[in-house]
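Structure ticket #2291
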Amino acid sequence: MSLPAAAWRERVEFERRLVHAGGTLYPVPYLLGWLSWSETRVFLGVALAVVFALEFLRLVVGLDHAVYRTLTREYEEDALAGYALYQVSMTGAVLFLSPTLAIPAMWMLSVGDPVSGALADNDATEAKRPAAWIAMGLVCFGLAVPFTVPAFGSNAGVTIAMAGAVPAAIADGIPPVIRGTPVDDNLTIPPAAAGGMLLAVAVLA
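Resolution: structure written out below.
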């Protein structure tokens, strides 16, 4: 059985952040020239299939083990776990975006979210405090600028990076709730960032 929110946060938040940050490595083989972007898409697609298989075993077959019991939140017991939603949004970014926009959107989730989480003391259904919002926005902006400025120029690149960072911070700071259940920001941060950057590109570039 999952831990109550306060006890869960105290015990396993560090472990979840480590797992979270591990997704930063997804585009690294592409950046190092080891894989093409098409091969990166295939890799993420295979990883997503594996994740769905694991969730099928957990939710339908009833496979239960220490990792699930330790790292899942209470509201994830009977629904897709946060790591699965994380994989969905990461794969979506890779499939539908160019590397210039996809990699910042992915890193806003894998790097920015753990940073803001370390500064927050909220429950999963509560908005984060201002310090977490500011940190998330600054980190996301810093992650995007090295990609957007070379691709679009200094003025447009800075604006496009900001256009991704602000929606990412909002998606992280205010979790939407549907029928009393919070929508995990693992699912919402990359699409929010991508939507903001795509809109800015359409307007400026």
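Closing remark: The chain has a mean pLDDT of 83.
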